[in-house]
Amino acid sequence: MDKNVDRRVRRTKTQLKQAFIKLMGEKNYDQITVTDIVNQADYNRATFYRHYNFKEELAEEIISDKTMELIETFKYPYKKKSLIHLNSLSPSDIIVFDYIMENKDFYKLWGKFESIPRFEESFLQSIARFYKKEIILLTPNDSELDDDLYTSFYANGILGMIMDWIKKGLEPDPGYMAKQLIKILNYYPAESFIGNRETGVLP
């Protein structure tokens, strides 16, 4: 009986979340009401309030769910072994872009979700915190290199690439992005200079 109840609860909450995401594509966050959500999900208000106190609580749970799911994609290459040599990674080891594409109904609304207070900050901080706490980067043998700063630079660089891809509408395709991320992870530092990026004029 408990399993059946749990299954019904999960199904109901899933449908409420799907209804909310669909409404985010049609309205601004502050325009969406509990009545809108239950009408979209074909439930009544009593059902909603059995699971959530207000729409903000529903939104927070969606953000938490998506954050944890995304974190699981970062763990994927470590499922079989705890030590990974970056130069041994293949595009098939990088599933984060495929996952985002599979959940494009949510990620293509990133700009709309940014209207939810602390949405992007909460989302990115959770992922960066995971990366810093659970991924140990074997840094170059340099006593003057701060390992925490190195990991922070590394994690935020990867997140920046992913977020830029999301905000550009999930283009190019996930396979291309996975290949590029691997190339970037294994690339030696490039020389830098001040020039014109558009014209290619060097100093």
Question: Overview of this structure, please?
Answer:
This protein has 203 residues and is mainly α. It folds into 2 domains: 53 residues, Arc Repressor Mutant, subunit A (Orthogonal Bundle); 131 residues. 61% of the residues lie in helices and 0% in strands. The protein is built from 10 helices and no strands. It is elongated. The mean pLDDT is 85.
Compile the SSE list and pairings.
Elements: H1 2-24, H2 34-41, H3 45-51, H4 55-75, H5 96-102, H6 104-107, H7 110-113, H8 119-134, H9 147-167, H10 174-185
Helix pairs in contact: 1-2, 4-8, 5-10, 8-9
Keywords, separated by commas or semicolons:
203 residues; 10 helices; mainly alpha; 61% helix; Arc Repressor Mutant, subunit A; elongated
Share of residues in strands: under 5%
Structural class determined from secondary elements: mainly alpha
Number of beta strands = 0
Major sheet = none
